[in-house]
């Protein structure tokens, strides 16, 4: 049902499965996932907690719990679950990447960097990984490191709008406003209706 977009029907089926087999962690895990997909984070957390209680040493249980807590807006709880998942499998790079995002959300930027380094072997220098590293450096008020990373990218990635946006943000943090304006304008050439980027450009132009 999920595969054909019938997520609501799928959740009802998983609810029935938890009634028929309340000790089956997989049913609770799937119920949590479909609840996340439907935007029902509270139900997702309840189902994920039941899943973990039934199978605390199972990697899928800890991962679905982490995702449920992330959906519920509790990065501290999500980080704890991602750390438990990583302890179960130190090659679960998805857990490391999730832990990095959660650590960054609570302002633990050094810890976020550590988790991103653990995630790199599984992700490589992909755009999501690079953006996360640059964002952590910007949030940690280290624009020089962020700018250095952007400048070291190959030509194909340097032109990516999201990379150009980070370049502009690094320039703003360094007080190089004219260069920031140029980069913001490049981003808007690809996304002219992006109100947030327009606001950032306006701020740069009045500096």
Describe the structure.
- With 207 residues, this protein is mainly alpha-helical.
- It is built from 13 helices and no strands.
- The radius of gyration is 20 Å and the shape is elongated.
- The relative contact order is 0.06.
Short description:
The chain is mainly alpha-helical and 207 residues long. It is built from 13 helices and no strands.
Relevant terms:
207 residues; elongated
Helix and strand sequence: HHHHHHHHHHHHH
Number of helical stretches of at least 4 residues? 13
Q: Find the structural class using helix and strand composition.
A: mainly alpha
Contiguous runs where pLDDT drops below 50 for at least 5 residues: none
Helix content: over 70%
Determine the N-to-C terminus distance. 54 Å
Share of β-strand residues: under 5%
Principal-axes geometry comes out as: elongated
- Main β sheet profile: none
| Mean pLDDT figure | 94
Spatial extent as radius of gyration: 20 Å
According to DSSP, the number of beta strands is: 0
